[in-house]
Please model this.
Amino acid sequence: MRDFAAWLASTSLSNTVAGTLWVIPLVQSIHIVALAVAFISLFVIVLRIWGWAGRDQSLSATTDRFTPWIWGSFVVLALTGIVMVIGEPARELISFSFWAKMALLAIGLLAVLGFQQHLKRHRVQWEETLVALPTTRLLAGLTLLVWIGVIFMGRLIAWDGRIWGSLSPQIAG
Model:
């Protein structure tokens, strides 16, 4: 990965992104806002699953309202994430926190997809039920914890070597 990061850092695109003073801070800001939109949308759905909020509408109505925000945010997150990797390849690609974030992100995306499929298969049941089954409530909570992990690991990328020590490829290599 070090060789790829070094190659990417030597490209003109990477040099342009890294060399333009405002690009990385702007892209990071957009990335953080998109993550907040995705997380808040997921949080509202989880609160509805738990029966703690939005009981005046069905779970189907809640997910129909907030799921497009989740997927739209994921598109923005992917695009801004690619720009950040291009602009700072060593910081991102040679980082334990980055790869932990990517692993949690994959789990989180699978959880969101799985829930959407489950909802589509049992849409009538969700229309009639105010509070979800205990298993669904537990899975919703675990999904929320995974996304908190994504946020946490993303934040730790900046301090990867100091936080993880020898676990960090930045220190180990």
Q: What stands out?
A: Residues 2-172 form one domain. The first helix runs from residue 2 to 9. The radius of gyration is 19 Å.
